[in-house]
């Protein structure tokens, strides 16, 4: 076959692959527009929070100054296109953390995206390592902490109820271990031990990241609830069990298995009811039996 024809076919194939890729992952403006629509429906106002390392995107609403703040941290988003192909933009296609925040009926609610997600148009490019090997790096935790301080000032809130989805749960745990104003912790399909999760899936360990399992024993007196999906093929159920045992729970009463929920589906429909599930401190579980 003549080279001219082969080159033409190659260009057609490239265009077709690029088009299919764009349809599959969604253009960045489309993902940002989706997040803006979700936040609007939940009465959340968008803001950009400048920290020492990143400018982070947030959505929030507040109608009770001095009241507690329900603060949601997003999952890893579209971090990878395939096991070997890292995404150029980690903004979620389905922002479950934001959707849960929008559904929360509390007076004061806020949401924090992760580094690189819903990036402000004039912001500097974020190193893709921060949604792969360094997603739980010390500088990420520091930046999220700084953003929380800003959100407290914006909303006028007092104490914080922290909620983390997937990789956002790891961030939530690491943040909680550093602060004194967190009064409760909830995780949803939480990656509470990235090292164990990566071993389970037989993939390379993260480098440059902290492991929330290492600070589990610091949270034994904190009221918490860990929601596990019965059909979650990403985070196995033993991860939450291992975490609460390290935190001091002999029986795992802090874990609730949500029937029919996978890693990303089955949560929105039940979230308002799940918010009503009582919290429990691992260190006092035995006394409450």
Overall tally of domains: 1
Helix content: 25-40%
Distance between the termini: 77 Å
Just give the CATH class. Alpha Beta
CATH superfamily: Alpha/Beta hydrolase fold, catalytic domain
Number of strands: 10
Q: Which series of helices and strands comes N to C? A: HHEEEEEHEHEHEHEHEHH
CATH architecture: 3-Layer(aba) Sandwich
- What low-confidence regions span 5 or more consecutive residues with pLDDT below 50? 1-25, 285-289
Mean pLDDT: 89
Largest sheet: 8 strands, mixed
CATH topological fold name: Rossmann fold
**How are the strands ordered across the major sheet?**
1-2-6-3-7-8-9-10
Name the beta content range: 15-25%
- Form type: globular
Number of helices: 9
Radius of gyration: 20 Å
Structural class: alpha/beta
Detailed description of the structure:
This protein is an alpha/beta fold and 289 residues long. The protein has a single domain, classed as Alpha/Beta hydrolase fold, catalytic domain (Rossmann fold). The protein is built from nine helices and ten strands. It has helices at residues 3-25, 28-41, 96-103, 138-155, 167-176, 194-200, 238-247, 271-274, 285-288; strands spanning 45-50, 55-62, 69-73, 80-82, 85-86, 108-112, 160-165, 182-188, 224-229, 255-258. It has an eight-stranded mixed β-sheet with strand order 1-2-6-3-7-8-9-10, sandwiched between helices. α2 runs parallel beside α3 (96-103). The longest helix is centred in the N-terminal third of the chain and has 23 residues, at 3-25.
């Amino acid at each position: 076959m003549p080279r001219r024809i082969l080159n033409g076919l190659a260009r057609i194939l490239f265009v077709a692959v690029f088009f299919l890729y764009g349809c599959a992952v969604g253009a960045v403006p489309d993902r940002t527009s989706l997040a803006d629509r979700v936040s609007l429906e939940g009465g959340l106002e968008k803001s950009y929070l400048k920290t020492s390392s990143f400018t982070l995107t947030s959505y929030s609403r507040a109608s009770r100054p001095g009241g507690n703040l329900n603060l949601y941290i997003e999952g890893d988003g579209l971090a990878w296109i395939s096991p070997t192909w890292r995404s150029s933009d980690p903004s979620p296609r389905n922002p479950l953390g934001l959707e849960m925040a929008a559904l929360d009926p509390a007076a004061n609610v806020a949401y924090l995206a992760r580094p690189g997600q819903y990036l402000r148009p004039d912001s500097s490019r974020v190193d893709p390592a921060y949604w792969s090997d360094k997603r739980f790096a010390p500088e990420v935790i520091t930046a999220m902490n700084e953003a929380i301080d800003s959100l407290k000032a914006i909303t006028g809130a007092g104490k914080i109820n922290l909620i983390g989805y997937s990789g956002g749960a790891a961030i939530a745990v690491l943040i909680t271990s550093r602060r004194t104003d967190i009064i409760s912790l909830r995780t949803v399909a939480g990656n509470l031990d990235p090292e164990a999760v990566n071993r389970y899936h037989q993939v390379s360990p993260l480098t440059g990241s902290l492991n929330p399992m290492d600070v589990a024993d610091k949270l034994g007196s904190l009221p918490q609830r860990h929601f596990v999906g019965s059909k979650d093929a990403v985070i196995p159920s033993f991860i939450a069990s291992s975490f609460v045992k390290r935190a001091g729970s002999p029986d795992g009463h802090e874990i609730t298995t949500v029937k029919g929920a996978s890693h990303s589906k089955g949560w929105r429909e039940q979230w308002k009811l799940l918010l009503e599930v009582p919290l429990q401190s691992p260190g006092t579980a035995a006394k409450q039996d």
